[in-house]
Amino acid sequence: MSYEEAFRASVEDPEGFWLAAARGIDWDVEPARGLDRRRAPFYRWFPDGELNVCRNALDRHVDAGRGEQAALVYDSPVTGTRQTFTYEELRDQVAVFAGVLAGLGVGRGDRVVVYMPMVPEAVVAMLACARIGAVHSVVFGGFAANELAVRIDDAEPKVVVAASCGIEGSRVVPYKPLLDRAVELATHRPEACVVLQRPQWEATLGPRDVDWAQAVRTARPAACVSVAATDPLYILYTSGTTGRPKGVVRDSGGYAVALRWSMEAVYDVGPGEVMFTASDVGWVVGHSYIVYGPLLAGATTVLYEGKPVGTPDAGQFWRVVQEHGVKTLFTAPTAFRAIKKVDPKGELARRYDLSGLRYLFLAGERLDPETYHWAGELLGIPVVDHWWQTETGWPIVANPVGIEAAPMKAGSPTLPLPGWDVRVLDAAGAPVPAGVDGAIVVKLPMPPGALPTLWNDDERFLSSYLSTYEGFYLTGDGGHLDEDGYVFVMGRTDDVINVAGHRLSTGGMEEVLASHPDVAECAVIGVADSLKGQVPRGFVVLKAGTAADPAVVEAELVQLVRDRIGAVASLKDVAVVAALPKTRSGKILRRTMRGIADGLDEPVPSTVEDASVVEALRPVLRRE
Ligand code: COA
Ligand code: AMP
User: Fold this and answer.
1) Closest atom of ligand 1 to CA, residue 330
2) How far is the CA of 574 from the centre of ligand 1 (A)?
3) Is the pLDDT of residue 25 over 90?
4) Which one of 109, 126, 188, 363 has the largest count of C-beta atoms within 10 Å of its C-beta?
């Protein structure tokens, strides 16, 4: 099938298209029906199918005689470890850990929060949940105790699985004290916390804690439990417009079908081939293309614990590619900008044999043309920008190289993939002409793998995504289509920002700043950054009559955001100012502030209440 044919088939007959793709999965009960539309806009894929996702990711390949093949390669320059797990070994470890969870009373539908760095046990924990029909919720290690507590209260896990520590470059970050603090802060009490003790920093265990190593010594392996295709596989929290994260729900059957299909159609990775996704299991990219996608395809996945630079050098990605025979590399543009900054001529890349590398995929933030060209010239392979979100689970727009490569256009992630009927609408809901920016939306129903709802919050699912334009999913990104149907994603239309490929809410940071006793009002904006894409900057007005020293408050606010949200928020710059620019109706002009900070020739809107406030702020915004 050509790309054109595949795309047309997927929108004209989605049921037929995805039922055919569903043959790539081993079902316990084969689905006879594609899409259940009865509760639209709550669509459900494969309503009568039953399966186990862990069985499809592991046992299936062992049963097919490929147990000796490498499933997972753990490459950790920060600990000096390299370890390969065959499909058989990984299956056995997962089955035993599933036995540990079952022994702690975890069963089908129960939630398990996973708070771990990039260690194989994180993958084992996720797959063990899938094996017994439990729902995992992985929380990224860079989040602070408070963020973990919020997620524990929302997901109400029976068990939390954590590691004693993570390693950030040369710094050891104890995780267990953060977990203890989170459990203290949370209202919900997990029954047990399983702790993986790492030699770099061992935690003191309390009465609720279970030592991972001891528990697996005595546990009996657990078998795969058949679940409904519509049962949740995981919850993954992501930033929205407030400090309250959104619990994106992922179903089991639709996700498995979509990922399995995408591995060949998008990433061109098949059984026995090696995919290296340099992200983190705490993000959707990690869920889909470190863990589930490559394993569902019977490929080998590389789990890399380290940074693109500094652990110890900017040649580590190239070393991994050579050492493990990587065919497809996937990371965020920021990682390439980091490498380029240290090694602008790409001298380190030339020290390694990269002849097996066929594709570089980039996502998570806008790919700037300079990085696109630099990477392409350095590697001499297709650099595939592709656009997607936690909510969608897999790419919406990409160059479908596994089906039929399309000509590239710098600045565009190329074409909508089969299943994604992408449109651009104006504020009134009318389609805009080619080249004109508007809201990027997807016509319902979305393909399998996309979120069916938010955890315990159907209302918020509707109000966040489906109520702005009836019959369409609101992506939250703005941009346009060109006359060839290429999609150009220009940036978020809400207050989400992307910092080093990490999705963060400026609204959430504002809530933290506003909680300081000396702060009267505040604004956080995302400004352009040559390494991280965007970084947040905070501006606060102090309460009248306060005696506080502005410099002290600024430092306290930076620390407050680090303590409440986490180091990953990267808010390093907060300025006390006399006033914030507003419209006559009292809305802070964040867009104007952002434009000025980015050095654009930003017009001051006619609705401004007091133009002199903008002028007074201009030098601060421009750091003059
Ligand atoms: N656990 C604990 N702390 C973490 C963490 C984790 N898993 N991940 C990040 N942090 C900390 C960092 O140590 C840093 O702390 P600091 O302010 O004390 O230095 C802070 O959070 C900000 O992290 P980050 O924005 O990642 O900055 P960095 O300087 O450490 O690294 C890059 C910059 C570009 C090298 C890095 O972000 C990177 O490799 N990005 C790749 C993109 C990626 O993985 N994207 C995910 C989606 S695809
Ligand atoms: P996340 O949910 O963390 O994956 O972040 C999703 C958001 O990242 C999207 O809504 C976009 O704003 C941004 N994003 C992801 N990929 C791209 C891309 N290829 N081009 C532009 N923006 C992107």
Assistant:
1) 48
2) 20
3) yes
4) 126
